[in-house]
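Entry type: protein chain
Record version: 2
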Amino acid sequence: MSTAQNPIKLYETVVDECPYLDDQQSASILVDPEHKVDPNLFSLLSRSGFRRSGEMLYSPKCPNCNACVSVRIPVVDFTASKGQKRVWRKNLDLKVTIEEVGFKQEHFDMYLRYQLARHPESSMCDEDPQKYISFINSKFSRSKFLCIYLEKELIGISVIDQFDGGVSAVYTFFEPEYSKRSLGTFAILYLIKLCRVKRIPYVYLGYWIKQSQKMNYKIKYQPLEGYIDRQWISLKAPS
Protein backbone atom coordinates (compact mmCIF):
# COMPACT_ATOMS: atom_id res chain seq x y z
CA MET A 1 0.00 0.00 0.00
CA SER A 2 1.25 3.52 -0.68
CA THR A 3 0.36 7.16 -0.67
CA ALA A 4 1.42 9.47 -3.48
CA GLN A 5 4.85 10.14 -2.01
CA ASN A 6 5.39 7.72 0.86
CA PRO A 7 4.99 3.93 0.45
CA ILE A 8 3.61 2.13 3.49
CA LYS A 9 4.99 -1.22 4.56
CA LEU A 10 2.35 -3.71 5.67
CA TYR A 11 2.98 -6.78 7.79
CA GLU A 12 0.90 -9.90 8.36
CA THR A 13 0.42 -11.19 11.89
CA VAL A 14 0.73 -14.85 12.85
CA VAL A 15 -2.41 -16.95 12.58
CA ASP A 16 -4.29 -17.43 15.85
CA GLU A 17 -7.66 -18.64 17.10
CA CYS A 18 -10.55 -16.37 16.17
CA PRO A 19 -12.04 -14.62 19.24
CA TYR A 20 -15.46 -14.34 17.59
CA LEU A 21 -16.12 -17.49 15.56
CA ASP A 22 -15.59 -21.06 16.68
CA ASP A 23 -13.34 -23.26 14.53
CA GLN A 24 -11.95 -20.26 12.64
CA GLN A 25 -8.50 -18.73 12.56
CA SER A 26 -7.69 -15.04 12.53
CA ALA A 27 -4.86 -12.88 11.22
CA SER A 28 -4.44 -9.20 10.37
CA ILE A 29 -2.49 -6.79 8.23
CA LEU A 30 -0.63 -4.18 10.28
CA VAL A 31 0.71 -0.83 9.16
CA ASP A 32 4.44 -0.61 9.84
CA PRO A 33 4.67 0.83 13.39
CA GLU A 34 7.74 2.79 12.27
CA HIS A 35 5.75 4.60 9.58
CA LYS A 36 4.82 8.14 10.55
CA VAL A 37 1.03 8.34 10.55
CA ASP A 38 -0.51 11.80 10.44
CA PRO A 39 -4.23 12.72 10.59
CA ASN A 40 -4.53 12.70 6.78
CA LEU A 41 -3.14 9.19 6.46
CA PHE A 42 -5.25 8.02 9.38
CA SER A 43 -8.31 9.38 7.59
CA LEU A 44 -7.38 7.56 4.36
CA LEU A 45 -6.80 4.28 6.17
CA SER A 46 -10.02 4.59 8.20
CA ARG A 47 -12.01 5.14 5.01
CA SER A 48 -10.30 2.06 3.54
CA GLY A 49 -11.40 -0.41 6.20
CA PHE A 50 -8.57 -0.08 8.73
CA ARG A 51 -9.12 0.19 12.47
CA ARG A 52 -7.07 1.59 15.34
CA SER A 53 -6.07 -0.06 18.60
CA GLY A 54 -3.77 2.32 20.40
CA GLU A 55 -1.05 3.27 17.91
CA MET A 56 -1.61 0.08 15.91
CA LEU A 57 -3.52 0.28 12.63
CA TYR A 58 -4.84 -3.02 11.34
CA SER A 59 -7.23 -4.73 8.96
CA PRO A 60 -8.36 -8.39 9.14
CA LYS A 61 -6.80 -10.84 6.69
CA CYS A 62 -7.83 -14.26 7.92
CA PRO A 63 -6.65 -17.39 6.05
CA ASN A 64 -10.05 -18.99 5.39
CA CYS A 65 -12.62 -16.38 6.34
CA ASN A 66 -13.77 -12.91 5.31
CA ALA A 67 -16.56 -12.48 7.88
CA CYS A 68 -15.18 -9.21 9.32
CA VAL A 69 -16.63 -6.25 7.43
CA SER A 70 -15.77 -2.63 8.24
CA VAL A 71 -19.06 -0.73 8.59
CA ARG A 72 -20.26 2.86 8.81
CA ILE A 73 -23.55 4.70 9.28
CA PRO A 74 -24.55 7.46 6.79
CA VAL A 75 -25.89 9.79 9.46
CA VAL A 76 -28.17 11.93 7.26
CA ASP A 77 -30.16 8.86 6.21
CA PHE A 78 -30.18 7.06 9.57
CA THR A 79 -33.57 6.14 11.04
CA ALA A 80 -33.71 4.80 14.57
CA SER A 81 -35.51 1.50 15.15
CA LYS A 82 -38.22 1.13 17.77
CA GLY A 83 -35.72 -0.43 20.15
CA GLN A 84 -33.20 2.36 19.61
CA LYS A 85 -35.89 4.97 20.22
CA ARG A 86 -36.72 3.27 23.51
CA VAL A 87 -33.06 3.40 24.55
CA TRP A 88 -32.93 7.11 23.69
CA ARG A 89 -36.05 7.93 25.70
CA LYS A 90 -34.79 5.87 28.65
CA ASN A 91 -31.68 8.03 28.81
CA LEU A 92 -33.10 11.53 28.34
CA ASP A 93 -32.05 12.31 31.91
CA LEU A 94 -28.36 11.92 31.02
CA LYS A 95 -25.90 14.67 30.16
CA VAL A 96 -23.03 14.18 27.69
CA THR A 97 -19.90 16.31 27.55
CA ILE A 98 -16.96 16.18 25.13
CA GLU A 99 -13.67 16.08 27.02
CA GLU A 100 -9.99 15.67 26.24
CA VAL A 101 -8.49 12.18 26.36
CA GLY A 102 -6.18 11.74 29.31
CA PHE A 103 -5.60 9.64 32.37
CA LYS A 104 -7.84 10.15 35.38
CA GLN A 105 -8.02 7.62 38.20
CA GLU A 106 -11.82 7.92 38.23
CA HIS A 107 -11.96 6.89 34.55
CA PHE A 108 -9.51 4.04 35.00
CA ASP A 109 -11.34 2.64 38.03
CA MET A 110 -14.60 2.57 36.05
CA TYR A 111 -12.81 0.93 33.10
CA LEU A 112 -11.54 -1.84 35.41
CA ARG A 113 -14.96 -2.39 36.95
CA TYR A 114 -16.41 -2.69 33.44
CA GLN A 115 -13.74 -5.19 32.35
CA LEU A 116 -14.16 -7.30 35.50
CA ALA A 117 -17.93 -7.43 34.95
CA ARG A 118 -17.88 -8.03 31.19
CA HIS A 119 -14.50 -9.56 30.27
CA PRO A 120 -12.87 -10.99 33.41
CA GLU A 121 -10.67 -13.41 31.42
CA SER A 122 -9.59 -10.84 28.83
CA SER A 123 -6.09 -9.38 28.59
CA MET A 124 -7.82 -5.98 28.77
CA CYS A 125 -8.60 -6.67 32.43
CA ASP A 126 -5.21 -5.33 33.44
CA GLU A 127 -4.44 -2.98 36.31
CA ASP A 128 -1.59 -1.27 34.45
CA PRO A 129 -2.68 2.36 33.77
CA GLN A 130 -0.17 2.68 30.93
CA LYS A 131 -1.77 -0.19 29.00
CA TYR A 132 -5.14 1.48 29.42
CA ILE A 133 -4.08 4.89 28.12
CA SER A 134 -2.01 3.39 25.28
CA PHE A 135 -5.11 1.44 24.17
CA ILE A 136 -7.52 4.36 24.07
CA ASN A 137 -5.26 7.11 22.71
CA SER A 138 -2.83 7.73 19.85
CA LYS A 139 -0.74 10.57 18.45
CA PHE A 140 -2.65 10.85 15.18
CA SER A 141 -6.34 10.16 15.87
CA ARG A 142 -7.56 13.42 17.47
CA SER A 143 -9.45 11.33 20.01
CA LYS A 144 -12.02 12.64 22.46
CA PHE A 145 -14.05 11.31 25.38
CA LEU A 146 -17.83 11.43 25.28
CA CYS A 147 -18.45 11.49 29.03
CA ILE A 148 -21.93 10.40 30.16
CA TYR A 149 -23.28 11.77 33.44
CA LEU A 150 -26.32 10.96 35.55
CA GLU A 151 -26.73 14.20 37.46
CA LYS A 152 -23.14 14.72 38.70
CA GLU A 153 -22.08 11.07 38.57
CA LEU A 154 -19.90 9.89 35.69
CA ILE A 155 -21.44 6.59 34.54
CA GLY A 156 -19.89 6.00 31.11
CA ILE A 157 -17.26 7.03 28.59
CA SER A 158 -17.19 6.53 24.85
CA VAL A 159 -13.82 6.98 23.13
CA ILE A 160 -14.15 8.51 19.66
CA ASP A 161 -11.66 9.25 16.90
CA GLN A 162 -12.06 12.24 14.59
CA PHE A 163 -10.86 12.34 11.00
CA ASP A 164 -11.74 13.95 7.70
CA GLY A 165 -15.18 12.70 6.63
CA GLY A 166 -16.08 10.74 9.72
CA VAL A 167 -15.97 9.89 13.38
CA SER A 168 -15.10 6.43 14.68
CA ALA A 169 -16.68 4.87 17.76
CA VAL A 170 -13.60 3.21 19.26
CA TYR A 171 -14.67 1.84 22.63
CA THR A 172 -17.35 2.41 25.25
CA PHE A 173 -17.19 1.44 28.90
CA PHE A 174 -19.51 2.21 31.77
CA GLU A 175 -20.47 1.41 35.34
CA PRO A 176 -21.82 -2.18 35.32
CA GLU A 177 -24.74 -1.25 37.59
CA TYR A 178 -26.19 0.81 34.70
CA SER A 179 -26.15 -2.02 32.15
CA LYS A 180 -29.94 -1.90 31.74
CA ARG A 181 -29.65 1.59 30.28
CA SER A 182 -27.91 0.16 27.14
CA LEU A 183 -25.28 2.88 27.29
CA GLY A 184 -23.36 1.44 24.33
CA THR A 185 -26.39 1.98 22.10
CA PHE A 186 -27.06 5.37 23.65
CA ALA A 187 -23.48 6.49 22.94
CA ILE A 188 -23.79 5.57 19.25
CA LEU A 189 -27.15 7.34 18.95
CA TYR A 190 -25.69 10.43 20.60
CA LEU A 191 -22.73 10.33 18.22
CA ILE A 192 -25.06 10.13 15.22
CA LYS A 193 -26.95 13.17 16.49
CA LEU A 194 -23.69 15.05 17.08
CA CYS A 195 -22.42 14.26 13.58
CA ARG A 196 -25.65 15.52 12.05
CA VAL A 197 -25.28 18.83 13.85
CA LYS A 198 -21.64 19.16 12.78
CA ARG A 199 -22.37 17.90 9.24
CA ILE A 200 -20.00 14.96 9.54
CA PRO A 201 -21.26 12.35 7.06
CA TYR A 202 -20.35 9.01 8.69
CA VAL A 203 -20.07 7.23 12.00
CA TYR A 204 -17.68 4.28 11.75
CA LEU A 205 -18.47 1.27 13.95
CA GLY A 206 -15.47 -0.97 13.37
CA TYR A 207 -16.10 -4.54 12.20
CA TRP A 208 -19.43 -6.28 11.77
CA ILE A 209 -19.55 -10.09 11.84
CA LYS A 210 -22.86 -11.55 10.73
CA GLN A 211 -22.27 -14.94 12.36
CA SER A 212 -21.21 -13.49 15.73
CA GLN A 213 -23.90 -12.53 18.24
CA LYS A 214 -21.36 -10.26 19.92
CA MET A 215 -20.76 -8.26 16.72
CA ASN A 216 -23.96 -8.71 14.73
CA TYR A 217 -25.82 -5.94 16.63
CA LYS A 218 -24.29 -3.34 14.31
CA ILE A 219 -26.60 -4.36 11.45
CA LYS A 220 -29.47 -2.85 13.49
CA TYR A 221 -28.21 0.65 12.62
CA GLN A 222 -29.84 1.35 9.29
CA PRO A 223 -28.91 2.26 6.70
CA LEU A 224 -25.48 0.69 7.12
CA GLU A 225 -22.61 0.50 4.64
CA GLY A 226 -19.87 -2.15 4.51
CA TYR A 227 -16.42 -1.96 2.93
CA ILE A 228 -16.32 -4.96 0.58
CA ASP A 229 -13.96 -5.46 -2.37
CA ARG A 230 -12.54 -1.95 -1.82
CA GLN A 231 -15.87 -0.18 -2.06
CA TRP A 232 -18.65 0.86 0.32
CA ILE A 233 -21.93 -0.94 -0.34
CA SER A 234 -25.30 -1.01 1.41
CA LEU A 235 -25.91 -3.78 3.97
CA LYS A 236 -29.54 -4.62 4.63
CA ALA A 237 -30.85 -5.80 7.98
CA PRO A 238 -32.71 -9.14 7.89
CA SER A 239 -36.46 -8.65 7.58
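Comment: The first helix runs from residue 39 to 46.
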